[in-house]
Amino acid sequence: MNSQFELIKSSGGIDEYRLKSNGLRVLMLQDLSTPVATFMVTYHVGSRNEAIGYTGSTHLLEHLMFKGSRNYNKENGTAIWDELQSIGAQINATTWNDRTNYFEVVPSEHIEKAISIEADRMRFSFLRDEDRQPEMTVVRNEYERGENSPFDVLDKNIWATAYQAHPYHHSTIGWRSDIENVSTERLKEFYDVYYWPNNATATIIGDFQKDTTLSLIAKYFGEHKKSDHEIPKVYTEEPLQEGPRRIVVKRSGQSGITAVAHKTPPGLDVDMYVFQVLGKILCDGKSSRLYKKIVDQGLATSLFMYDFPFKDNGLFITYAFLTPDTDNQKVEDIILKEYNDIISNGVEDSEIMRAVAQIRASVAFSRDGSYAVASALNEAIAIGDWQFYTSYVEKIELVSAKDIKRVASKYLTEDQSTVGWFIPKNKTK
206 and 269: one domain? Predict the structure, then answer.
């Protein structure tokens, strides 16, 4: 093994290394079946690291970090998009609550190009004001598209209502006035706080040679020192909720939406696996409990369960997209009645078996291909431990009916709830 790295641990065929000089973590999983590899850099920074005045900074920086760096810029004829698209690569970046990632899916012979680009923009992105102005407009347009979606607007308002102190209160894209007014200097400051090798994990999945690739990572990322400062930790905790909360959004739209949200534990808490199974029992497919009682009865066209694990407390949200003239309250009552039934009577073992089978299948489908694996690992990194990825199905299979009754009783209580309604304006007269 390359002497510049130390092997930290291995799980599920994945090896974790640490670059000794600067603390960069590296995850490697070989798959030689196709001559393609995905290289992804996950930064341990997202909207949870933002505050009033600079909400949306992580996302705006995502845009700016494609606009040029020391070695890859349009002035030199080496713009990132041109360099990668000319070799048939797929490239992009995404931002969420707990992380930001930048990635390339490349033919295996071009791995070095992807590594070089990501290392360069880690510390040498230009972040110019003349680039911020047009990119701000692009981001604002993205924000406005979200504002035209009843679901997006309701979801944003539910999180802003459920969370008062914790930065999950703010949506990833940020508040409009912050998007428009945050200065380039403030964005640079944010970049200089968080975008360092010791606050990042590089993941490479697919067809590559380990020693060669480790040498390339050391060559390009080894140029960077670790940060001179401690990476700030989010220490704000959401106070205990002391009663139900409600939010009603009234806008033009075709149909209403009813949503019932409850706080969940942090993503690495064992109870999160219980919520994953419970979500399937409630909302996944025509045999699920709420589908039978809401969709089959003509009260909604579809249901959606929002149960993603986050680094800190998340939300377990049942969304019902109502049919015309369906009353929001009626569907809310059905959802809460079903929760109370599970608290009182639990669930059947057969329901758990079906839910676990659904999860096994969805995991298998979602991990097909180097990018899919890197993307799933990225979310596990975000919540705090990449081994969440390798142990997920095993932990899901341990969930029992007793666990579901206990978790429902603990979390799905009225005093911990936030209910959201979207009411089309033409229905409110």
Answer: no
Residue 283 lies in a domain: yes
**Do 26 and 153 lie in a common domain?**
yes
Q: Are residues 411 and 324 in the same domain?
A: yes
Query: What is the C-alpha separation between 24 and 421, in angstroms, rounded?
Result: 44
Do both 153 and 9 map to the same domain? yes
Distances (CA, A) of 375 to 25, 92, 255: 16, 12, 33
| Residue 74 · residue 68 · CB < 8 Å | yes
Q: What is the DSSP string of 339-400?
A: HHHHHHH---HHHHHHHHHHHHHHHHHHT-SHHHHHHHHHHHHHHT-THHHHHHHHHHTT--
- Same domain membership, residue 212 and residue 288: no
Segments forming the whole domain that contains residue 186 = 5-221
Same-domain pairing of 254 and 214: no
Q: Are residues 83 and 197 in the same domain?
A: yes
If one counts every other C-beta atom within 10 angstroms of the C-beta of residue 148, the result is 11
Kindly calculate the radius of gyration of the chain based on its CA atoms and give it in whole angstroms.
Answer: 23
When divided into structural domains, the chain yields a total of 2
Q: How far apart are the first and last CA of the chain?
A: 71
Per-residue pLDDT of the chain (429 residues; tens, 9 = 90+): 789 999 999 999 999 999 999 999 999 999 999 999 999 999 999 999 999 999 999 999 999 999 999 999 999 999 999 999 899 999 999 999 999 999 999 999 999 999 999 999 999 999 999 999 999 999 999 999 999 999 999 999 999 999 999 999 999 999 999 999 999 999 999 999 999 999 999 999 999 999 999 999 999 999 999 999 999 999 999 999 999 999 999 998 889 999 999 999 999 999 999 999 999 999 999 999 999 999 999 999 999 999 999 999 999 999 999 999 999 999 999 999 999 999 999 999 999 999 999 999 999 988 889 999 999 999 999 999 999 999 999 999 999 999 999 999 999 999 999 999 999 987 544
Residue 83, burial from CB neighbour count under 10 angstroms (0-12, 13-18, 19+) = buried
Q: Measuring CA to CA, how many Å separate 53 from each of 173, 187, 328?
A: 13, 11, 35
Decide: 204 and 38 in contact? Cβ < 8 Å: yes
Residue 55 backbone zone (phi > 0: left; psi -120 to 50: alpha; other: beta): beta
User: 163 and 261, same structural domain?
Assistant: no
Helix, strand and coil content of the chain, in percent to the nearest 5, comes to: 45, 20, 35
